[in-house]
Design goal:
With 69 residues, the chain is mostly helical. Helices cover 78% and strands 0% of the residues. It has four helices and no strands. Helix 1 packs antiparallel against helix 2 and helix 3 runs antiparallel to helix 4. The model has no long low-confidence stretch (mean pLDDT 94).
Length: 69
């Protein structure tokens, strides 16, 4: 819960796309660990849209192959 709050604060205060993408990626991992699959996929998708990072896409595909399409 603490990590989720800190990550949400980082997302909310960042204007830098790379930092925001990294924070969204972290949020996706946190939400996935909490079993919140749909919310995790949304965060990972938003991260991918900002950074086009292949690691993010791989995480998204592993979590929800349909969402990564």
């Amino acid at each position: 819960a603490v990590a989720e709050r800190a990550t949400l604060a980082a997302i909310g205060s960042s204007n830098q796309p790379n930092l925001r993408a990294a924070s969204l990626y972290n949020l996706g991992k946190i939400l996935s660990a909490q079993g919140k699959k749909a919310e995790a996929a949304k965060a990972l998708r938003q991260s991918w849209e900002l950074s086009q990072n292949p690691v993010t896409l791989a995480e998204l595909k592993a979590l929800d192959p349909a969402a990564a399409a």
